[in-house]
Structures are given as structure tokens and as C-alpha cells.
């Protein structure tokens, strides 16, 4: 879009804001399954002229089915952690057969997605320091949530 010769005189920051606003409008219309009259009313409230509103609605109508399929594939909620398991792994040698003696933790988060039932588990490896950092951040998040619910 920034390379379009018709748009060369427009400030790139303004152009990016316009692109973000249009994308948000399209996504929200798709998410709420808005009809053309609702979209037209919204765009009229934003002071767009009738010709642009008609062009926008025509393009939206053409791509509505593809948009709904795309939004449906994304899902509506993040995964939910149901359990966590871990084990200590002790690496004695590396690929070059050098002795390393490095302990690490293999952590597996059991997750489920509320709209589709199950989801593959999330696994990662980390050092003791990384695991302590993760636990600290989780404790901070839990305290923040606790404070927010007490207000």
C-alpha cells in the first residue's frame, strides 16, 4: 500500500492508521455478522460519503463468506491450561561427545480449547533460572488477579 503512487502524498503514519481502522471495521463486522444496513449506518456516522460506503459494502459482501471462514478458524478464546507436568533432564554429553553436565527441566502444559474440546499439549525445555523466572512471573500474575478481584 505504501508503494502505491496515488498514496505517495499521504503521511505513512496516517495511512497505517487508516489501514488499521479499516481492518478493525471489517473484522468487527464479520465477528458480529453485521448486515449491510448496519455497516452503512456505522460508516455514515463516521462521515464517509455514500459512494465510498457503497464500494466498501460491495467489497465486504463479496468477501463475507471467506472472512467468516477465516474468523471461525481462529477461534474465540485462548487455550485453557488444565494441568502441568515436568521432569528433570540431565544432559551428560552433547552431540560432539563432550561432557556437559547440564540439568534442565522438560515442562508440559496440558491445555484444552473451550470451543473445540482438546488441543495438543505445549512442551518446552528450560534451565533452573528460566523456570524460577517463570514461576515468579506466574506468582506476580496471580497476585495481580487477586488484587483486581478484591476491588
Automatic annotation (TrEMBL):
InterPro entries: COMM (IPR017920), COMMD3 (IPR037355). Coiled coil: none annotated. One of its GO terms (biological process) is sodium ion transport. Residues 80-149 form the COMM domain. Pfam families: COMM_domain, COMM_HN. It comes from the Eukaryota. Transmembrane segments: none annotated. Belongs to the COMM domain-containing protein 3 family. This is COMM domain-containing protein 3. It comes from Serilophus lunatus. The lineage of its organism: Eukaryota, Metazoa, Chordata, Craniata, Vertebrata.
